[in-house]
Amino acid sequence: VIPSLILPSCLILFILIFLVSCATAALPDEIPQRDIAELLISDPESTSKASGDYGNLVRVTPSAVFRPSTVDDIISLVKLSNNLSNPFSVAARGRGHSVRGQAMAADGVVVEMVSLQAGDGVGIRVSWNPALGFFADVGGEQIWSDVLKTTLEHGLAPVSWTDYLYLSVGGTLSNGGISGQSFLHGPQISNVHELDVVTGTGDFITCSKEMNSELFFAVLGGLGQFGIITRARILLQKAPSRAKWVRLIYNDFSKFTRDQEHLISLDNNGPNYVEGSLITDNSPPNNWRSSFYSSLHQSKISSLLKSNQGLLFSIEVVKYYDDLTANTIDEEVEDMVQDFGFVPGFIFKKDVPVIDFLNRVAIGDDHKSEAHPWLNLFVPKSAILDFNDAVFVHIMRRHNHTTSGPILFYPFNRIKWDDRMFAVIPDEEIFYTMGLLHSSMPDEVEIYEKLNNEILEFCEKSGMKIKQYLPHYKSKEDWVNHFGPKWDSFQEMKTKYDPRMILSPGQRIFKAI
Length: 513
Ligand code: FAD
Known about the structure:
CATH topology of the largest domain: Vanillyl-alcohol Oxidase, Chain A, domain 3
Distance between the termini: 24 Å
Shape: globular
Number of domains: 3
Largest sheet: 8 strands, antiparallel
CATH architecture of the largest domain: 3-Layer(aba) Sandwich
Number of strands: 18
Structural class: alpha+beta
Helix content: 25-40%
CATH superfamily of the largest domain: FAD-linked oxidases, C-terminal domain
Strand order of the largest sheet: 14-11-13-12-16-17-15-18
Bound molecules: flavin-adenine dinucleotide
Number of helices: 17
């Protein structure tokens, strides 16, 4: 028997892995339930893959990756760590689409959630009950594109999405999950009925607004700090069949935001999706987020861009329809935008199946070798004019609108977010998301980081109460600032559900004890 209570955690891991390689050796008694040692893999190829993410900015090597085939395997791993005097850290990895190492674990174990798909995971199951109507029980390891495909087979679909669907359910629910539907339905975390969670103590807990609600609200938007989501019960509605997809080009920021705010005030009779973005020379109208325009339209927009000092704004608005509304949809869309202040003649329309619209974002392989020093902010409505003037007009122009990637800017209604969750948003009824989705050559990252820092410094100096989405900080003080009045309960929940501080260390909020 290995005296695991007195050995350091990395040594225990090493011994476990060694035991696997000598298949005949006896396993330590401390491994609960079933032999999980064989699921711990430490070959350089596997650990190297878990050392990076989509950002290509951080590399952190784990001692091993863990490939669970059941939820019990995850429970066993977390319990094993808890039983050690020096616990090892455990990071669930959805698809590693974080950009700052949030799903990494230095000298710890990265749980490759995807392996549950080949094993005995929850899968994607569509059901109905009188209290909830239609819903899907979805494994935390599943990706949203598979959720879409499966639910569409039943004529149903979730209501709130991310732009890109190849993200894991557990990963986006740990952050928020935002897109153009959030103004109407809230972020993805507002559309969950129930969760199964393996906490940092290895307890398996089912929670909802009514049952173990404290854990439910902590986990949604909780940055992976309180438990590993193994099942989420997602609200479904009848799937729409087609989408009228419209883009409007503006040369005036005030009119652009005024019209976006009008659209998000329309509620159920208005649009189903509203986003917005900037167009600059380095952030052209067609990019990896979607290729919408024909080449003729692109050159028309390029000419307009030249006569507007290289800066335009674009609203993207979508209205779903089906056979019943097919005859009236064009008129409805015309009415919706008829008094809008876009540049005359700069309205572009498409009509596509809803599945094509939702699945519009694809990232190519070249993206995987680039670095992505993204900056995502939430900006309160009261600050957007100053933000535009300082950031879009001055700071970014000084940097020659350096960013090569989409620049998103669109509003949300605060009322659609649940304040009991730890997702942090500005304290105003309407706030905007700004996404600077830079793509950079790995040796040019500094240029983009300088731009990001200048923006953050401007916001701080001017007292603008912005918040980071997909936050990344280096110091505890910054995290305390980020959570503001929620910090004390964030810490309390951590002490309750992950007292040894082993989960998602890549967020760099707590250190294992
Ligand atoms: P990972 O990066 O693997 O993990 C993220 C965090 O969650 C880590 O801390 C991890 O430990 C934790 N985690 C992972 N799985 C679980 C689980 N089952 N239980 C508990 N914790 C877990 N976000 C939006 O909101 N809207 C968008 O439109 C959007 N588009 C994107 C497009 C691209 C191309 C990329 C790269 C990212 C985009 N994101 C978007 C950001 C995305 O939501 C985050 O990167 C998120 O982390 C999801 O990625 P993932 O599933 O790979 O999670």
